[in-house]
Amino acid sequence: MSYGIMAYPADLRVLRKWVGSGDVRLADGLANYFTASLTYLDSEFEDDEPSLSARDAFRQLIIETELDQRQGSLYAYCFKLLCQYSTDYEMLSNRHWSGMRFGWFETVAAELKAQGVDFDPTDLVFSGPPVPLPHPSGFPNVGHVANAEMPALLEKLDRFDGAKADPSVADAVEEMRSWLRDCREYELDLVCFYH
Q1: Global pTM?
Q2: 6 and 192 Cβ atoms separated by less than 8 Å
Q3: pLDDT of residue 137
Q4: CA distances from residue 22 to 19, 106, 135 in whole angstroms, order as listed
Q5: Residues 6+ apart with CB under 8 A from 21
Q6: How far is the CA of 54 from the CAs of 51, 95, 119, 165, in angstroms?
Q7: Which of 2, 32, 50, 73: CA 20 to 30 A from 139?
Q8: Long-range CB contacts for residues 169-178, cutoff 8 Å, separation at least 24
Q9: Residue 185 burial (10 A CB sphere; 0-12, 13-18, 19+)
């Protein structure tokens, strides 16, 4: 089975304002907006116990300050919907980070390290969500990079010389750089999901 990184330009200020806000009107309005996506999530989680509808989980994410610790994966997928809605921008291209196995992270990390670049790409998906969420028992993994952290990370990644690396790794590193550059240009943050 293969997986991928779904990278979103997101506004952390907006997301942190929404999550746990108690805003019932916002929760209901967005739950209605995402009806089809929440119905799909219900089909994906129908065999999980204890059961909680995706709509209820999505509403809880906005309304509640205490979330069910057993529903981390469902909340994380609902949070992904909030990330999609937080800006006018679509998911960033992930051509070189999709259809992959976990070993791809290790391959890219090894080539970065070989050139003296101290960055592990798994940080993009294992640094944790930018809002309080119960830890998922499985997928998705969630990570984020705040806009203020991006110049230092870009400086590291810009030391990587793609001409000295495997072309597929060079493309993957360039795609990571493009995510960061786009978010800097949009004055937004980066939130990544791996599943």
Answers
A1: 0.92
A2: yes
A3: 82
A4: 8, 41, 21
A5: 62, 63
A6: 9, 29, 35, 43
A7: 32
A8: 169/107, 169/108, 169/111, 171/95, 171/96, 172/96, 172/97, 172/104, 172/108, 172/121, 173/108, 173/111, 173/112, 174/96, 175/93, 175/94, 175/95, 175/96, 175/97, 176/97, 176/121, 176/124, 178/92, 178/93
A9: exposed
Confidence tier at 88 by pLDDT (50, 70, 90):
confident
Lowest mean pLDDT: which of 1-5, 28-32, 81-85, 97-101? 1-5
Q: Which residue has the tokens 């599943």?
A: 195
- Would strands 5-10 and 189-194 be described as parallel, antiparallel, or unpaired? antiparallel
Residues present in the chain in total: 195
